[in-house]
Design a protein that fits this description.
Chain lengths: ~625, ~325, ~270
């Protein structure tokens, strides 16, 4: 259906050209699905834009060709390409929140391809749009067609986008991370929808994702991208079960799997090479445990056990498992020796916000406006003992973050009580919270936001030491070095600003910042969600080490059950502000009691175990 | 939507009340004495005292304000102590002339400014874009009073096409009337074009790079449809707000332009009454300007809300 | 460095340099009246000609540059000194402080700047320093609004929450966490405000409510030249073009610097009026 041969794409940037894609080759047979997998910077989205012919103006195709249904797309005129685009090949973008035009109705946007490509009148197109919305599983399609994008939820917008891409019945559909912005249960529904459409319409799909579980669910073939190159390509099941290229091995080993308890995850040390001057030889060699001298020569593609692998040592390493230095020290405080003192106890905690008022109404002669309130946290009770990690899972808008920040009194509670180390802190004024502030800290999701960009690492880390008089002025630099060492960063990082570090390094500083006050309890608010899989593993290992060494208790907030199940002792599940279930990890994962927990656990796309997820109603 | 309009209207009333207090307070600090203005500088003090008492000038300022405000609301703007004429007819005549001038200029600014902005955005990074950018830079840098000098030098002194100043009523002939409007209009347009065109350009460029325009291209829509249907409406939203602000700026611009061109409008009335310490006229004129300004903003707000479905329909995620 | 920024710095530095050195490099005394040299067109002795009192236009221009620059800068300082703390307080504390300050700004902004300036100046006999204060006063609301919106954005950042989690005082958070990040957009805005202030200040001088004769303020020079546009157009053109060059120079710097701002804060600068 489509084949890409030797495609190389460069981006012009102020700091020099970046080779975003280097000799990419693949083909996709009619009716099959190819998944393109890679971490950020791998170039996977550029492939979608190049195939559609909508690369931004600063990108240029240096070499290669793209054949679609026997035609060389590069040889076509701009007009001919536009005719194919949206008519025979469709694209679904990543973020459903910004891809729909805010000032056009859903029906108009779904049907407009028909008007311009298939000669429908706007009225006919609208009728067909309603049918399509129905087909992608939207209830009340007639009403939704008249709505504007901001009136719909994320899942509904993504369905509408898919409906729009399908309207002209294209033969090829390219999906760029179509479920990344969505909650797992919605993701499962969208994947199910795509599968059904593929069978019904004999669609060919290119599915771009960073999530191997999702890929396994949807694709026949997988191509793994690293730094602009395809490093391994082959049938999905075989590749995920037995990866050959060292990078694929590392990627798979770094993912926490539900139901498999390990003390530490494997991680991939190092970082992506500079694509302005990509290495001549293997681009992964600097991070590869199997590296030998020959790796610095250009790597060719090798065919090996149904796979195409860009690694000269493919045959030699095929059966080798990924080996990474397990960087955790021997635990000094084992889970058994933990004190059972309760550090945080929350009882019937409620927080609500006023988000607006109802329109003015009259109660007799008295004007009256009823406030519209939302309650992100409704009557939550839980407790955490010293040295324990409690996982808090739930979908977006379930109130996880608000709960975490209310416990720390960054947000004031409405009602209920918070006891910290035995003291009731729920009503104390901010000035009297100092002892609690020192003992309870927070790690945020996005280190770009949590590290003040105008301060160096040294300034950041010394402030809490000075603020709480933890070290004498002369000892501060030594303490800062010790903190850096604790999060495994070299001492010379004291002079760096946030923008001079990678995402993983910034998150390590975020953790060091929380540790500076020697806390007994840390709220970790999605600390790894913004990170790539390989970096995520290293941060999770670090958090596990710190708990074991320092005996810190965590409230670990995450939308990713697999991560929580790996790291935590107990799991609490939140939905719409309420705690629906709380219990030990194995109980929650293997024997969930509440229906919502069951559907949440079932919806997680897995990279091993049963190949397809438990059926969930698509509504 | 109705509640929104009511709320905005109430706000306008509130702002105008506050403005009137501000203006009244500042003007009452002016070192001018209405009684002397009426009676002449050499009037005997007893006579002045008597008149002051009669006019209530010795009352506390808040009483004076209330008296003035109630008069204003009932349409009685008082009398100009300087010209010894009722203010209202004089003011309305000035307002109508100024609105004529600003109205003309506003339409031209909107049309040319948006047009130039769009043209520059669609030719982003090419010669035409650079040309327009340089021209608008000049527009921002040249103050109105210098534009008016240039217009006079070029069109009145040098080419001799236009009268250098003055105003003729339409009864003197449409062409004569129109000829006197051209130079001040041109000055106002030159002075205010740049804001509109620069904003239109930057917002259009931003929208043309937005994910939904990219998505529209991915649907293979003709470029004309991408621009007209997907980009334009969203790009013009911020321009509308700036146009309203520009109408306000025009109300400021007429101060200089009407003075230079001896155009008998509101701007000249303000300058004249300040120079001659004619307080009642000044208070009334400034309040009228603020009212026009506030209503221009109100209209922009409503237009913005009407064109923006997020405000029109509110947010209710299913 | 982008071309825009370079050109802006060059033009501005040139004008500032010439103005500062004016007393030493001016070829003639700026205020000596000489009836024999009236209305001379530009020539090899008087490069930019002479005015109705026979004074050298170039020397007056150079001296006037000092006045315009000082007026613009001091007016902007006035609006920064009052507007920035107002905006910080409104953005960080919210509630009635924000309501009060922002509604006050709304009221001030409901009167066109030039009329507000006229009103303020009408109260006292005109002088250039009063014009500067009046212009500064007029531009408090936009500065306060920008500071507020930048503060709001920054207050939503997690490093502010982190500081609260360390029990830092509001003063520390405002001045040590937020303000250092708010400076870049404020400086860009302030540089653009300097140009507005120069234009507004000279417009007020032009209307007779600023600098008084025999001062060589550029706005006043243009006002005085109005009567002689037919005979001596250079009298108006020289200060006019000088002012344009200065304003363009500062604008180029402001726009060039804005391009380098944090994208989260960039959109806010220069849109307030």
């Amino acid at each position: 259906m489509i084949s890409v041969e030797d495609l190389t794409v460069r981006y012009r940037t102020p700091d020099g050209d970046i080779e975003a894609l280097s000799s990419i080759s693949f083909d996709v047979a009619r009716g099959s699905t190819l998944a393109l997998v890679g971490e950020s910077g791998s170039g996977k989205s550029t492939i979608a834009l190049a195939a559609m012919g909508i690369l931004p103006s600063e990108a240029s195709i240096a070499s290669g060709r793209i054949m679609f249904a026997g035609k060389d797309l590069m040889a076509l005129s701009a007009g001919q390409r536009r005719d194919i685009r949206g008519s025979r090949m469709g694209l679904v973008f990543q973020d459903p929140f910004s891809v729909l035009n805010p000032s056009l109705r859903i029906g108009e946007q779904v049907g407009e391809g028909l008007v311009h490509k298939r000669g429908y009148t706007p009225k006919q197109a609208l009728v067909r749009a309603v049918e399509l919305l129905d087909e992608v599983g939207i209830r009340q399609p007639g009403v939704v067609a008249q709505a504007y994008p901001h009136q719909l939820s994320g899942g509904m917008r993504q369905r509408a986008l898919i409906a729009g891409a399908l309207a002209t019945e294209p033969e090829l559909l390219i999906l760029d991370e179509p479920t990344t912005a969505l909650d797992v249960t919605i993701e499962a529904q969208i994947l199910e929808l795509l599968e059904r459409l593929r069978v019904q319409r004999n669609l060919t799909m290119i599915f771009i994702s960073h999530n191997l579980g999702v890929v396994r669910r949807i694709s026949d073939q997988v191509a793994v991208l690293y730094a602009g190159q395809i490093v391994e390509r082959g049938p999905t099941e075989a590749l995920l079960r037995n990866p050959v290229h060292p990078y694929s091995k590392g990627l798979l080993a770094a993912i926490p799997r539900i139901g498999e308890r390990k003390t530490r995850l494997a991680s991939i040390p190092g970082r992506l090479p500079d694509l302005r001057r990509p290495p001549v030889g293997c681009r992964f060699s600097s991070r590869c445990p199997f590296v030998i001298a020959e790796c610095s020569a250009p790597q060719q593609l090798h065919e090996i056990s149904l796979r195409t692998v860009r690694c000269g040592r493919a045959a030699a390493v095929e059966a080798e498992p990924w080996t990474s230095v397990v960087d955790g020290p021997v635990s000094s405080i084992g889970p058994k020796s933990r004190a059972s003192e309760t550090i945080v106890a929350v009882d019937q905690l409620t927080k609500s916000f006023t988000i607006g008022h109802t329109p003015l109404a009259f109660d007799g002669w008295r004007p009256r406006r009823t406030p519209i309130r939302i309650s992100p946290v409704k009557g939550v009770s839980l407790s955490i003992t010293a040295g324990e990690a409690l996982g808090l899972v739930g979908e977006s808008g379930s109130g996880k973050t608000t709960l975490g920040r209310t416990i720390l009194r960054l947000i004031d509670p409405q009602s209920g009580s918070i006891h910290f180390a035995g003291d009731d802190v729920s009503r104390l004024p901010q000035r009297q919270l100092e002892p609690m502030r020192r003992a309870a800290q927070i790690v945020f999701q996005n280190p770009d936001s949590s590290l003040n960009p105008r301060k160096t690492v040294g300034e950041l880390l010394s402030r809490p030491l000075v603020r709480f008089r933890i070290a004498a002025a002369a000892d501060v630099p030594a303490r800062v070095k010790a903190l850096l060492d604790l999060v495994r960063l070299p001492a010379h990082y004291t002079n760096r600003y946030a923008h001079q570090m990678s995402g993983g390094e910034k998150q390590r500083i975020g953790i060091a910042l929380a540790l500076a006050t020697e806390p007994r309890f840390i709220v970790c608010d999605e600390p790894v969600s913004a990170l790539d899989v390989s970096v995520q593993a290293a941060i999770i290992n670090l958090l596990a080490d710190l708990r074991d060494r320092l005996g810190v208790a965590y409230l670990f907030i995450s939308h990713d059950i697999s991560v929580v199940a790996h790291l935590c002792d107990r799991i609490a599940v939140m939905r719409q502000g309420e705690l629906v279930e709380i219990g030990p990890v194995d109980e929650i994962i293997l024997r969930p009691q509440h229906g919502y927990t069951r559907s949440l656990v079932a919806a997680v796309p897995r990279i091993d175990g049963a190949p397809s997820i438990a059926a969930i109603g698509s509504q | 939507m109705t509640a929104f309009i009511v709320r905005r209207l109430a706000f306008v009333v509130l702002v105008l009340t506050a403005v009137s207090m501000l203006v009244f307070t500042i003007t009452s600090l002016l070192p001018a004495n209405v009684a002397y203005l009426i009676l002449g500088s050499f009037a005997p003090p007893e006579q002045v005292k008597a008149l002051e008492l009669k006019l209530g000038l010795t009352d506390p300022i808040w009483q004076q304000y209330i008296r003035w405000a109630t008069g204003f609301l009932s349409g009685d703007l008082g009398e100009s102590p300087l010209l010894k004429r009722p203010i209202a007819p004089m003011l309305w005549e000035a307002v109508s002339r100024s609105l004529m001038l600003t109205g003309f200029s506003f339409v031209l600014i909107a049309l040319i400014g948006i047009g130039l902005g769009l043209l520059a955005a669609l030719r982003h990074g090419r010669t035409l874009d650079h040309g327009i950018s340089v021209a608008t830079y000049l527009g921002i840098a040249v103050p109105e009073f210098f534009w008016s000098i240039i217009v006079i030098i070029v069109f009145a002194s040098w080419l001799g096409w236009l009268p250098a100043s003055g105003y003729e009523p339409m009864s003197e002939g449409v062409w004569v009337w129109f000829k006197h409007l051209i130079a001040p209009t041109m000055t106002l347009v030159f002075g205010h074009l740049a804001h509109v065109s620069r904003l239109t350009r930057s917002s259009m460029i931003e929208v043309m790079q937005s994910p939904y325009v990219n998505a529209a291209r991915a649907k293979g829509l003709p470029e004309r449809v991408v621009v007209m249907r997907h980009a334009l409406r969203n790009a013009l939203l911020p321009t509308i707000t700036v146009l309203a602000l520009d109408f306000g700026r025009l109300m400021g611009g007429i101060v200089v332009v009407e003075t230079v061109f001896a155009y008998p409008g509101l701007g000249r009335l303000v300058v004249f009454s300040i120079q001659n310490r004619d307080l009642p006229t000044l208070q009334a004129a400034i309040l009228v300007v603020a009212a026009i300004y506030a209503f221009a903003n109100l209209i922009a707000d409503l237009l913005y809300a009407w064109l923006n479905p997020k405000i029109r329909f509110g947010v209710h995620v299913n | 460095m982008p071309l825009q920024l370079k050109a802006g710095l060059l033009i501005t530095a040139l004008i500032i340099g010439l103005s500062v050195l004016a007393p030493w490099i001016a070829p003639h005394p700026w205020d000596t009246i000489s009836m024999r040299t009236r209305f001379l067109p530009p020539n090899s002795i008087y490069w930019l000609g002479t005015d109705e009192y026979g004074r050298d236009v170039l020397s007056r221009l150079l001296m006037g540059g000092r006045l315009s620059l000082m007026m613009g800068v001091s007016a902007t300082l006035v609006s920064l000194v009052i507007g920035v703390p107002m905006g910080l307080a409104a953005g960080y504390f919210g509630g009635w402080i924000e309501e009060g300050l922002m509604r006050l700004a709304d009221v001030m902004m409901a009167i066109p700047p030039i009329m507000l300036g006229l009103l303020v100046l009408a109260v006292t006999p005109p002088a250039l320093w009063k014009t500067a204060v009046a212009v500064g006063f007029v531009y408090i609301p936009p500065i306060a609004r920008l500071t507020r919106s930048v503060t709001l954005t920054l207050a939503g950042e997690d490093f502010v929450q982190a500081a609260r989690a360390r029990a830092e005082s509001p003063t520390y958070i405002l001045f040590r966490e937020i303000l250092p990040n708010a400076w870049p957009p404020l400086i860009v805005e302030a540089s653009l405000r300097v140009t507005y202030a120069i234009l507004l200040g000279s417009a007020l001088s032009f209307l007779g409510l600023g600098a008084q004769p025999p001062s060589s303020d550029w706005g006043l020079m243009i006002a005085e030249a109005r009567s002689f546009l037919d005979r001596a157009p250079w009298l108006a053109l020289a200060p006019g073009f000088a002012m344009c060059a200065l304003v363009i120079g500062i604008n180029l710097i402001g726009d060039g610097a804005r391009e380098r701002l944090d994208p989260r804060l960039k959109a806010r600068v220069g849109k307030s009026v």
